[in-house]
Amino acid sequence: MSEGLHELFSASAARHSGAVAVRDPGRGTEVSYQELDRLSERVRQTLERAGVRPGDRVGLCLPKSIASVAGILGTLKAGATYVPVDPDGPAARAAYVFRDCAVTALLADASRIGALAAQLEAGGPSPALLPLTVDDAEHGLGGLDGGGDERPGAVGVELDATAYILYTSGSTGRPKGVVLSHRNALSFLAWCSAAFEPRSGDVFSSHAPFHFDLSILDLFLSLKHGAAVVLVGEEVAKNPKGMVELALAERVSIWYSTPSVLTLMVLHGAPEAWRELSLRLVLFAGEVFPVKHLRRLRALTPRARLFNLYGPTETNVCTFHEIPEEVPAERVEPYPIGAVCAHLEGLVVDEAGRGVATGEEGELVIRGPGVMKGYWNLPERSAQAFLGSGSDRWYRTGDVVRADADGILTYVGRRDRMVKRRGYRIELGEIEATLYNHPEITEVAVVAVSDEDGVTIRAHYCTPDGERLSLIALRTFCARHLPVYMVPDEFQLETDLPRTSTDKLDHRALVERA
Amino acid sequence: MTREQIEADIRSYILEEFLPGEDAANLQRDTPLISSGVLDSLATLKLVSFLEESFRVELAAHEVGEHNLDSIARMGEFITARSG
After folding, report:
1. What is the number of domains present in chain B?
2. What domain count does chain A have?
3. Domain co-membership, A15 together with A119
């Protein structure tokens, strides 16, 4: 008996076969549930013919499109694990990810697959390469050879089988793969269903890229409930006014994105357009929402319910807080991250792992069926991520919080050197490791500074002759090795870097230097 | 406005807004800005707003991209064609 994530989709496909499942306004295309079922069957059969077996990994490097949705569903139907990467990111990083988890097959944009294949060749056996051109006929899937038999035949999976691996920034300078099971996703979606009561008439936005955990809600919650999901393509995602227009034209009822994106939409979208939106739910997660912008959003969406969601990729959403109907003019402090979701348990602990008293600061730890299996191929890192073991295993979020008497949690800050910006997790150490490879940089330290407008990343560097480096050249160098969201906003030339008494770099002192 | 004036305005905006402290000589007409990572998506958004407000043009979603915005020269060409 199959109980996998894709079964949610298959059940909806049976009930709502003629309803629209996915719309891609950027390409002017859409598919019904029945059609998407057929396309994902073709992907499954193509993958199986290419040698993919249950439990294998399948890499996805595709622009957001109906083809990429079919790729995800087809991979799951084959009993395999999908591993999505940023299609616009550096090829070297994508190749690292695919090599690290040893993908058996790779579904990639035809224009990018050559560069990826060249990078992959160096690292041992090459995966089966399945190039797609998403703008072509049949949503770009016309060229796949599934063998012609497109009757449903999804593979049954165990609940603890891995559904997807999402790579996040790693402090050692290498991304690490967060391994998530069907059980993890299903328990999260069951909570979402109870909390948000989606209906088949809902229209979800899909703003987050598929390598980002926000996409799990967009994609699978909509498909679970027979609703439509509207893809916000990479191009429109760069145009906040266009996103408000898209939400209006597509009658989006459930919007989910980072606060950064909503802030830009509030600042640049036409107020008349905002007032006509059909939004009934606005969800945001991934970083702190500065109150001055949240206040404007609240005023522009008087009929919608607004929720602040919180959680690392390792747990997906683990706490939530509803924003009241009015954000008082005098409020400056951000809203709480809220109460722990019903399918999980949370504790606030001290350095020794003991619970702290109400109102005291401590690290938030989480247990339950939504918590990841571990990091791919990193047993030590996986063990360090948890407090305790076996069934008494709590995931350490690394986030410092404070609970009030009702268990409502307020976010205080990070324990380590990871920051979140625009919803992305960034290990400052990974940026430092990259900049150390720059031929003209002798020493470098990267710090993050938060103010009411968000997080700024600043690199302090030294050069052999004390010459300032070109900002254009530095950013170009960084973007060749890092995703764009990790490129520092500011670069500051230093004659020397401050040290602590134990001769470690004094990041705190650097934060004060501006 | 001539194309030279348009490009000069765009250039000083980019230097001031996104490249404080940069040697102006490093920002050429053909310096790649988006494909190179010099401007991230947020900077691109600000740039689009600047272009729309300064030159009284509207950019449709499909026009916001490297093909029109990757260098000062491309922006100059696009704006000139649009306002001409």
Report:
1. 1
2. 3
3. yes
Tell me if A195 sits within 8 A of A320, measured CB to CB: yes
A132 with A12, same domain? yes
Q: Which residues in B lie closer than 8 A to residue A476 (C-beta atoms)? A: 32, 36-38
Helices A5-15 and A66-77 pack at an angle, to 10 degrees, of 110
**Per residue in A7-20, pLDDT tens?**
999 999 999 999 99
What is the CATH classification number for the domain harbouring B59? 1.10.1200.10
CB pairs under 8 A between A and B: 66
Query: H/E element holding A186?
Result: helix A182-196
Query: What distance lies between CA A142 and its chain's CA centroid?
Result: 29
**Quick one: how far is CA A313 from the chain centroid?**
7
Do A39 and A160 lie in one domain? The reply is yes
Pairing state between β A176-181 and A374-375: antiparallel
Rounded distance, CA A231 to CA A218, Å?
9
CB contact at 8 A, A8 and A159? no
- pLDDT above 90 for A499: no
Instruction: Enter the pTM of the model.
Output: 0.81
List pLDDT tens digits, range A263-305: 889 988 999 999 999 999 999 998 888 888 899 999 999 999 9
For residue B44, the chain A residues in CB contact (below 8 A) are 238
Minimum CA–CA partner of B63 in chain A: A235
CA angle A276, A281, A287 (to 5 degrees): 115
Asked if residue A384 and residue A455 are part of one domain, the reply reads no
Per-residue pLDDT tens digits for A438-455: 989 888 889 998 877 788
- A505, β-bridge pairs: A499
Distance CA A40, CA A134 (A): 14
- Phi, psi dihedrals of residue A131, rounded to the nearest 5°: -75, 140
pLDDT at A1: 40
Range of the domain at A119: 5-238
- Please provide the distance, in angstroms rounded to a whole number, between the alpha carbons at the two ends of chain B: 9
Task: Of A49, A20, A6, give the one whose Cα is nearest residue A152.
Answer: A6
Q: What does the pLDDT read at residue A337?
A: 97
Q: Which residues of B touch A238 (CB under 8 A)?
A: 41, 44-45, 48, 64-65
CB A171 within 8 A of CB A416: yes
Identify the domain containing residue B39 by its residue range.
3-83
- Cα→Cα distances A395→A160, A184, A318, A319, Å: 17, 13, 11, 14
Q: Which residue has the tokens 């830009």?
A: A264
